[in-house]
Write a structure and sequence with these properties.
By secondary structure, the protein is mainly α. It has a single domain, classed as Orthogonal Bundle (ABC transporter involved in vitamin B12 uptake, BtuC). It is 78% helix and 3% strand. Strands 1-2 form a two-stranded antiparallel sheet.
């Protein structure tokens, strides 16, 4: 069994991953509350944006800041275009159909990435990686700090946006009843477009940070969306702060399993296991509450 000193570096890594999972998880929750769509293409969109940024820097000599901005904007534009093209036709369909449709987008993007960039190993070195400081014996990079801070700031900002702005109020109204909201004069298409654009921008930012934290690999980044989905599901696709807490927990469990050789090869299962246990617990708790109310 590893010692406490062996686990310390992975605490920071887990919190950083959790913060980035929260970025895309919060975007998923906001989009689901506004449109009923669980966007499973978040990871693929972020991965392709990161690869485009890498190509602009290394193959075309673009400035790093501009390339990073392109990555984030790519996520917003692609997601917005998909939402505007396929959102209205899918509006009345079941949530499962909507989710499967976004899975199709993820597979298309994954195929394009394999075709254009192949599977050659790459690394995205952000300027914040080279600047680091120490907390005790733990080496901390500014990329990790940014990941943790962004997760918290974006969650708080999204909660305030939904609560206090007119556009956010429209998103919350859409989650309750789309037809009634439209009949009250709320510009449904504009509200939905804002939700798609916002979640796309968060996808691009998540892909950029994850490409530095875990490596720039299209398949790895695409399927890291599973951790974000697990966090959103644990929060029942409704609570932003619950999504943040679940994302941090998943990131910590995933990272802290690394030094334990007997289970490290199974650590990618952590999001599934945690989500299933949490959903079963919440379902059981809900059933008990219902039974007590019936008495």
């Amino acid at each position: 069994m590893p010692s406490w000193q062996d686990f310390q570096p992975f605490i920071v890594t887990g919190l950083a991953l959790g913060g980035v999972y929260a970025l895309s998880g919060v975007g998923m929750v906001v989009l689901y509350r506004a449109t009923g769509v669980l966007n499973l293409a978040t990871g693929a969109i972020g991965a392709m944006g990161a690869l485009i940024a890498w190509a602009l820097i290394n193959d075309h000599g673009w400035p790093e800041g501009v390339s990073y901005l392109v990555c984030v904007l790519f996520g917003g534009v692609v997601t917005l275009a998909y939402g505007m093209a396929f959102g209205p036709p899918l509006a009345g369909r079941d949530p499962l159909v909507k989710a499967v449709a976004t899975l199709g987008l993820a597979l298309i993007l994954l195929g394009l990435m394999s075709l254009i960039w192949s599977d050659k190993a790459r690394s995205m070195i952000l300027p914040t990686t080279t600047e680091a400081f120490a907390i005790g014996d733990v080496h901390v990079t500014w990329t990790q700090v940014i990941g943790i801070a962004l997760g918290i700031v974006v969650t708080g900002g999204a909660a305030a946006f939904l609560r206090y702005t007119k556009l956010g109020t429209g998103m919350r109204a859409l989650a309750d009843d789309r037809e009634i909201t439209a009949s009250l004069g709320v510009p449904v298409r504009r509200v939905e477009a804002a939700a798609w654009l916002g979640t796309g921008i968060l996808s691009g930012a998540s892909g950029l940070l994850l490409s530095n934290l875990v490596g720039l690999d299209s398949a790895t980044l695409t399927f890291l969306v599973i951790s974000s989905v697990a966090a959103a599901l644990i929060a029942r696709l409704s609570s932003l702060w619950g999504t943040l807490a679940a994302a941090f927990f998943i990131g910590l469990v995933n990272a802290l399993a690394t030094p334990i050789l007997s289970i490290s090869q199974y650590r990618d299962m952590a999001p599934f296991v945690i989500a299933v246990i949490a959903l079963l617990f919440m379902s059981r708790k809900g059933n008990l509450a219902t039974a007590r109310g019936a008495r």
